[in-house]
Amino acid sequence: MLLPPQYTTQNNRKKNNGVVMMAEMKTTAKETKLPVRAFLDSAKIAKWSDFRKMPLDEQKEILANTRKVRKAEMKTFENLKSGKLPEGALDSYENYLADAFSREGLNMSLCSRLIMHALKNGFNGAYLEYLVDKMVEFSTGSDYQDWSHSVCHRFESPTLNNQFYGRGRDDLIEKLMSASVKGAVATGKLGCTDRTLRGMMLYNLMNIDLKSVDKPLAAPFPDSLQNPEFLRLVGQALTCSVIPANLLVSKTQRGFVLSMLEEYPQFLQKVDKNILENVLEFLGNLVPELGEEKVNFYLQFLTHDSRITPQSALSNLKSPRVKGDLHEKVYYVDVDGTLIVDGRLNVELIRRLEEEKKDGYEVKIISGGNPVEQTERLKTLFAESGTNTILKIQVSSKEELKGKYLPILMDDTLPSIQGLSVGQWFDPNTYFG
Questions:
Q1: In this structure, are 149 and 210 located in the same domain?
Q2: What average pLDDT does the segment 133-142 reach?
Q3: Would you say 80 and 123 are in contact if contact means Cβ atoms under 8 Å apart?
Q4: Is 306 inside a domain boundary?
Q5: Which of 29, 193, 287, 382 lies most in the core, judged by the most C-beta atoms within 10 Å?
Q6: What CATH code is carried by the domain that includes residue 415?
Q7: 322-326 — which CB contacts under 8 Å span 24+ positions?
Q8: What is the predicted pLDDT for the residue at 410?
Q9: Which domain holds residue 409?
């Protein structure tokens, strides 16, 4: 059926208009580096379909205004970064972003996002200080849990470029920590402040100066954390993630690391290879002072293995890692502290491994001890306890696995400290939640 000429013309006009607008869109996107959603926000348009229904001239006007405003904002951005700011520029920049993001003015959530934006883009002067002061103001009129959650995101991931570390602005960290302490004391709850503190701990462990054991911490714990009531809250908290209060008063690397080993060794058991290597080298520097017996005693907290010395652990950490097939269906399972806990069979784990075996997984038992003796020990425990199993009770040596790839390891000791390359590592102490 042929369409009337006027309908065909109208349809073609709409199609041509669409092509024109797509070209305009691409030009605007290239110039402004803004997604389509930003165009709609700037024009207060709810849906893309609403925009397409507008007359072509009106659409073009919206895009032109978007380019104009965005170019002004980008110029302000560069001025902020270079420190060249006219009087009142901070307020106008804040208002522009507040309108673009929320149209509700500067609230706590927006302030948190602007701080992230400022840190990520290298702002370290008046503008960042202005936002931190605003965030501190929000601490008194907001729910403390929500506020502390917003703050913790700027501290808990030390490897990201949107954190407060390494900027020489300890004064800003002190402001936020002081507000955190006041909020915790006022509400009687830590909120998410423990996440902030754990981030500071990680940063300090990552930046240990091995040449000077008495050097101050890279990210000093602010004096405000020494508030007695706050330390009492930390000490009384029941969750395993809480930091011992003594750590928060540490000023030097020596005091910090030794306090952690004495009171919070489980934190070090979960850190990555590079951090653990820093700690081990640091401990090696303390051997003349503390004695090898004391240093080896600390090492037990990290490895659960009396056969590992600081020297062997450091050598293992520096050994090259190999890669393999992540989908290979093989479990490697340690004996002491894993299959055997406190002299008894870990029946819950054994039953779980039997289920995996039925699903097609191979289960290989390994040990750092004598494989023959460990095999006999396991067989004896199974017989004495009357426990039946479909698992093959044959222990292999861990030494033979160095330089090989283990797709899945079940072990209570960090694999990297043993020189093992693994795809997935499960700690039996936390495997069942």
A1: yes
A2: 90
A3: yes
A4: no
A5: 193
A6: 3.40.50.1000
A7: 322/403, 322/404, 322/405, 322/421, 323/405, 323/421, 324/405, 324/406, 324/407, 324/421, 324/423, 325/405, 325/407, 325/423, 326/407, 326/423, 326/424
A8: 92
A9: 322-431
Whether pTM > 0.70 for this model: the answer is: no
Q: Which of 271, 304, 338 is the last residue of a domain?
A: 271
| Residues 103 and 112: beta-carbon distance below 8 Å | no
Q: What span, in angstroms and rounded, lies between the C-alpha atoms of 178 and 163? A: 18
- Determine the Cα–Cα distance for residues 208 and 204; give it in Å rounded to an integer: 6
Number of domain units in the chain: 2
- Residue 365 CB partners (closer than 8 Å, separation 6+): 333, 335, 339, 374, 378, 391, 392, 393, 394, 395, 396
Confidence of residue 240 (pLDDT cuts 50, 70, 90): very low
**For residue 130, how many other CB atoms are within 10 A of its CB?**
18
Residue 227 sits in the same domain as residue 372:
no
Q: Are residues 255 and 365 in the same domain?
A: no
Q: Are 293 and 300 in contact (CB under 8 A)?
A: no
Residue with tokens 């000023």: 251
Q: What is the reported pLDDT for 11?
A: 43
Question: Is the CB of residue 338 less than 8 Å from the CB of residue 368?
Answer: no
Question: What distances in angstroms separate CA 56 from CA 24, 83, 119, 276, one per listed residue?
Answer: 11, 41, 40, 62
- 55 pLDDT higher than 50: yes
Both tokens of residue 349?
């784990």
Residue 66 lies in a domain: no
Q: Are residues 216 and 104 in the same domain?
A: yes
